[in-house]
Amino acid sequence: MRRGMDVAGLALALASAALVLVALLMAFLYAPREATMGEVQRIFYFHVPSAWVGFLGFFVTFLAGIAYLARGKRIYDIIALSSVEVGLTFICMAVLTGPFWARPVWGTYWTWEPRLTISAIQLLVYIAYIMLRSASDNPGAGARFAAVYGIVAFVTVPLSWFAIRWWRTIHPDILTGGEGMATTPRMTQTLMFTLLAFTLFYVTLVRQRVRIERAADEVARLRTEAGGR
Amino acid sequence: MGFARKVLTIVRKDIAAELHTREMVSAMLVFALLSLFVFSFALDLQGNVAEAAAPGVLWATVAFAGMLGLSRSLAREQLSGCLDGLLLAPVDRSAIFFGKAIGNLVFMAVVEVALLPLAAALFDVPLLRPGILLVFVIGTGGYAAVGTLLAAIAVNTRAREVMLPILLLPLAVPLLIAAVRATALLVEGGALAEAEGWLQLLVVYDLVIVAVSLLTFGCVVEE
Amino acid sequence: MPRRWSLRSSPPLLPRRERGLWGEGQLAYMIETLALRKSFGPRAALDGIDLRVEAGEFVALLGPNGAGKTTLLRILATLTRPTSGSARVAGADLAKACQEARRRIGFLSHRTLLYDDLTAEQNLEFYARMYDVPGAATRIGELLERVGLTARRAELVRTFSRGMQQRLALARTLVHRPTVLLLDEPYGGLDPLATRVLSDLLAELAGEGGATVVLTTHDLGQGLALAGRVVVLSRGRIVHDAPSRELEAGSFPALYERLTA
User: Residues of B with CB below 8 A from C118's CB?
Assistant: First the structure.
């Protein structure tokens, strides 16, 4: 474990902070006022990227799980759990901003809109994953089970997506997010930029979390050695 | 001597054990009946409301009763370390998976055979059509597969049976949506062709789940 | 007088090719491990085990709780995979040919590995099928008689006493005529009858039967009585490995104390 200042981490943190700040400014100043929904539509620039990054976190966990089962190296397990923790935060943001947007625009807190629903399902899966990890007595077994769960859960997400979409087309009661809005190039740019900012933020957080976990492992290892003597 | 033979041996073993005690299937059955009653009271299911709600109520009941059986079936292997007995034998881990999953499917099917006519009578809904039975077969098969994999994980945690619903239900969403929609379509008198899309989703779900389970079951049961 | 039988008196089970594998004898060791290590997280249960057991040896594996005895046996039985290092049992490399190894290994522990809700007979039938044992019906009959459970063959295992269950577990271990027996504290909680049946059978199998046996136990007395060789494990390492005749009866407890301090 290299001592001294974590230059890369600092650089990443500063870059993320800068990008998120710019994204905020763009969302409020650069993007135009939406025709039908008004100012509240600006939540869209945080709601959608949060959902995407949440899904990205899930995808990373899926890959890390496969790597862990194939190679057995602890680092993959650490990446998986870090990605889950950070991804969970983003998914929570997505699920919470949904109602804030839905209420003024459509008059109801929750809509069974496909994107919102799939985010809610991912939220439940993330929580299940975390509960699974903490419910295992043997840490090695816990890592294995979590890896398997991450893999199985991930492959059901596209299937859930299709199922929910077809279900909602049969009973469409509320206009889905993107279709109800008139989009201009400025809006797309803001969205893309916010997505970039959030992704970088995700990477920064995951990297930090991985470092913390590795430090914790190191402490445990040193303790065991000291205890053995 | 045959992968298939060993799978059948495991299935027969589970059925023989159940025949001796009959505790698991009877518990599942009683729970399923109680569940139907509770839903009927809670949702005030009569007449048209009953017909619209029946597919959903039925599949929710099957899902919950199924979990009882799944937990019990895997817990049985944990007792006296029997899972070690299976792992010691020269048998593919995937054969163990198939054996347990098919066994679980059989038990769920037994419960459904009793449940469907009863629900049909209770809600005055035509459930005993070939199309609907097909949906139940494919749907229950997928549920038994994903349930077996997850129950094998759940039974090794501190929380045991309590863990299974938390793990299983979010993953069963596509299966439950598709099964309920397909059943509803067929109950309303639609032809099988109309429910085709949903049936395809069910089949894809089943195939994906079985494929993933075959690849990962070994990692779950072995250290 | 119970009918004597041994592994060799039964018709040859192995196809010609496999018998050639051992018959022409360059099977150097029946059990062989090289730098075997197993860690559970930061804790190392086994820390570099090099063990060689020849065919027909009876090894007593002793050591305090947490020394790694059970872990070692489970690795040899293919129930657990080592973190590093390799092992060969009955000529099969456990990493590459573990199914082959499984056919020749019998594992007995204090957990019976029996289904409570099946009869004694059904349990043995199940395992006979899982191991592809030919002539299963006869074999099961023989085994039940040998462990003294013929009268209870059609009763559910949950009605058996601990001693009866362990006797049946012993029958289960032997149903496929294994040549390597791995026994993890098999005497735990047994009544005198079961203890005697177990000891008698082990003596027969090891002597005339030519089985290779590794037995772990807490009880120094039991361990030394049957074994030709004593291996002591402490904190994941082998600290003593010598023929049991080199040990004088009285001095071993003191030696053991020192080794495992």
Answer: 13, 16-17, 20
